Amino acid sequence: MDKTTIETICLNLTGTIQDYKKEWEATRFLVGNKMYAMIGGDSEGKPILTLKCDPNRSEELRANHDRIIPGYYMNKKHWNSIYFDSSISSELVEKLIIHSYSLVLQSLPKKIQKEISQS
């Protein structure tokens, strides 16, 4: 999956805003002012997509896909990073983006969730 496709998927999720964090050299996608996805690079500059993930599912994904690693510069329990050059299907990447978005959205106060759903 390429950066443009990832951006399109993220920006089609209700309430998503996109920004660029210069210090991290990363494009972030946020809902309710909380990040759920980030496009950046690893220590060698290889492009990665970092997503929030349920801890149990994180372990399973890492065990089954060698190009899914613990979240780069993130909490390794709750975040995974996926290399762009991987053979992971676009369908799985899209599902993981939606899963990440849902986890962050559900963690927001009910009032903010309601505001987002009505936007």
From TrEMBL:
Domain of life according to the entry: Bacteria
The record's GO molecular-function terms, alphabetically, read:
DNA binding
Pfam families linked to this entry: YjbR
**Carries keyword DNA-binding?**
yes
Q: What keyword terms does UniProt attach to this protein?
A: DNA-binding
Q: Which residues form a coiled coil?
A: none
Q: Which PANTHER family match?
A: CYTOPLASMIC PROTEIN (PTHR35145:SF1), CYTOPLASMIC PROTEIN-RELATED (PTHR35145)
Name recorded for this polypeptide: MmcQ/YjbR family DNA-binding protein
Q: What is the lineage of its organism?
A: Bacteria, Bacillati, Bacillota, Bacilli, Bacillales
